[in-house]
Amino acid sequence: MSSNGSDIVSQEIANLDINDGARDAFAMYDSAPPPAPKLKSKGVIAMDMTAEFANAAQQLDVGQLVKDPYFTLFESVGALEIMDRKMDSGCLEPGETMEDEYDFSQSLLPEEIIGIIDQLLCHEMAWHMGYPLAQTIFTSLYIDKLLSPCPLSIQQTYFDTRHGSSIHEPLTVRILRAYCLGLIKTCSYINNRVKAEHFYEEEDFVTHTFNRSLLEGIEHDDIFQFLEETTRLLAISDDVSPDVKKALDCRLRFRAQFLETVEVADSSTSDAIAQHWKTLGEFLPFLKSSSKFGKPSPFSFSVKIQRKLASTVPPRPIVQVSQESSFDHLERLCRDAAVAVEVLNYYNSQSLLTFVILFQGRKPQPSVYVRTLLQHYIFADMIMLGDKSIRHILDDDLASTVLPNHKLLDRDNDDIEVPHDLRHQMALRMETFRARAAGSYLDLLRTICQNRCRIRRSLCHTIVDWDTLQLDAEELDVELRDFTMEAPILDQQISTEPIYSFPLSSWAYFYKLKQMEWIVQMGFELETYQQDELAGMYWYLQYLVRTRYRHLERIRGFDVRGFAAARKDPKVPSNKILEYTRAVSFIDFSSMEAAATYGFADSLSSLFTVLSRLSLIKSPPRPYSNDSMRYEVRMKPFLGIGLPELVPFDELTRTIMQPEESNLDLLKFASECAVGAKKGFEVLTKLSAKDAYCQGSHESWLNNIKACLKACIFTSITIASVKKAVEVAGIDGRPKIKIEIPPSGKGYHDWWIVPKVVPVS
Amino acid sequence: MAEDAVADSKASDSKATGLPAELRYIQYSHELEKQYLPAIRALISKDLSEPYSIYVYRYFLYQWGDLCFLAIHPTTSLLIGIVISKLETHQSHSPPTLRGYIAMLATSSAYRNQGIATTLVRKAIDAMIERGADEVVLETEESNTPAVKLYERLGFIRSKKLHRYYLNGSSAYRLVLHLKRTMDMSGEVGI
């Protein structure tokens, strides 16, 4: 099908002919047959197969199709049709030339330099937004000239390559060249950073450089100095009007700052990173206001350059991103990147997770480059946050949930080498657990760094691993009892069996439940559910959160028991006692958050049930489907989960529809739940950063809780309106209202879809 | 995924049930290539920034012509609508299923809102059911509300959102319709 190699060869041949002036599409066609290929591979003998081919072709009828079994959809999509202008990059319009005839020796007005630079900034941001270089920065003829052939020193980067021209390069052109050098070098840092982390090529970002080097051969310092020197030359020149001179100066210094910032941003220790981003952001207001001095230079950009780039896809149109949206993007990038680096201030594992979740939840989501920087800071070189081991974080997390001041986490156990020593056995099994759990735990952090759609998709895939992790951990928990000599709780009121703590599997279960909740909640955010699914999905959310709440109660019971014992033991030092208070305080916090969440979910579930009973939410006819088969599609990620068991469809339907309850009873219940949830959110808003486990991101956390609170208050209002309408209508009457459901991003909180009541006459 | 690369659904709304009675719906077969393939390509690629090569069309039409249906104007015999699909055993993360895939759907703009696209999709699904399909999937642009509605009215649900799925940077929804209970899915062609 499409053979990239031969495309390039034929284009090169075509390029040679360019001066003859192409008048029609066949102008480049060489009537002489091409020479026989020179095959040098051992054992391959070239032969003329024309006669055999012609003979074989005669066996077919005209129009008969033959399909090779190895010809897949992938190949068919990659195939190109020669002579179709949209696919064939060599197909020329009458009078069209293969390449642009751009005169690099022409002088440019300073205003045109501003215009080109500003257009390049738009292209740079378009690249950040996810478009390929080929449709953005690489459409600039100046950039093309700079990168091809690949320069190895600044001396080799003159645009005008005529003999002697280097001596007479006008200052304006030099400014453009310096800016372009800085731009490409900046892109090089960014491209390498993105490539080094987890991201989705084409979906998030295109790292493809079309076989061009992004000035990897020229030193950072050389380019930086060249920019500074050019800035100095501009300062002493008097050919340019003051306004334009100021605008050019700002652009050069902005570029130098951007270049320096992306270089510094790669380090995960520098305290200066945030300041660099802030300084960069400070250039933007003047960049923006001085863009009016620019004069567009559309002829210095061309869609045709793509013909020269190594690519398997046909040329695509130049991406047009407005100046306004590119400035917006850059402004956000600076702001987000300055915040991302704060992740390096480690408080505790829970605050870390909260930070990452809230950072990724910013609207709009931080750009791919910033998200890969965040990954870099968290995971670079398998060292967490620049100076911590994975074990450090994992043990912190275990200590603050299921194993406060526990001998299983005692580092001294590692030093015991006597095989029958209990401590050696504990260390051995804990190492097995860490080896097993670390991957899942780190994957979770990395998953949250992806785009919103991918977060949900990845969680749907990996949730089953957490189910297995829980089972594996359960086996280890049982084995470990022989070494920890854990005394079970014996309480006939709860169970006739002795109750053990199962710390490791409890930990895995806690995180599994959290992730199942996120899967459901992100479904709301991504508008995955139809309106008549909302009652069921909010019911499922409360089911998961309630399960977590009960699980937290269980963990708390064991932590409190250990706490009580430790307080009586004079040998336990005070810092170890503190571990218990920390763990209990985290569990109390998580329980509080869970209670508010399930209350709110309960309320919405009941509300949506009433709305569908009143036919204010309608279900489509769905001739090819039924409720239970759709339930299977919806619950597919959870089908393989052992605990909590998937609620069977019939049971779920009964629970949601609650046929024995009247509409007014259901609304009363919904209203009470909303009131309870509101109280819960109000208490949460008063927590300190430390108590809410959001150190480092308290402001974002508070905004998030306040948004939940607002959504909750609005729900109460809706419930009251529906109730009033139902009462007015009487038992058999139709309430005179209709329901509007705001699209994602238009409500108070994307995870809480609150319907709005509108009266109808 | 290669399958993903062809995804496109341009569908019409079908509020009206009263179809033009005289409209002809025909199943594709190879003899129709010469008469209708250029029109099919023109209709599908109308709203695409980059066209599919002829091989993409032939890939589907050659192997699953019986799952492709044309809506034809009764007097002029011009093409009004087209649905192109395939049916294969699919296996990735879960047990194999016999999965139908609606690759392309289009109705000529002058004939929209008459339920033609719905009829075409129903014919494709019916043909898939006849061949024992376990499920049908497709992708559609997030902003293409008429298409999403069309499929949801038939019983599809949005299973996931695909970020920046199309070349123009817009996102898509994967829509899924189970035709059997999961436990009854065999992944094989039925009798």
Folded structure, characterized:
Chain B: Residues 21-180 form the N-acetyltransferase domain. Chain B: This is Acyl-CoA N-acyltransferase. The complex is a heterodimer of chains A (761) and B (191). In chain A, 56% of the residues lie in helices and 1% in strands. Chain A has 24 helices and two strands. Chain A has a two-stranded antiparallel ribbon with strand order 1-2. In chain A, helix 6 (171-196) runs parallel beside helix 8, helix 7 runs antiparallel to helix 8 (242-265) and helix 16 (452-484) packs antiparallel against helix 17. The model of chain A is unreliable at 1-28 (pLDDT under 50). By secondary structure, chain B is of the alpha+beta class. In chain B, strand 2 (69-72) and strand 3 form a beta hairpin. Chains A and B meet through helix 3, helix 16 and helix 20 of A and helix 1, helix 3, helix 5, strand 6 and strand 7 of B.
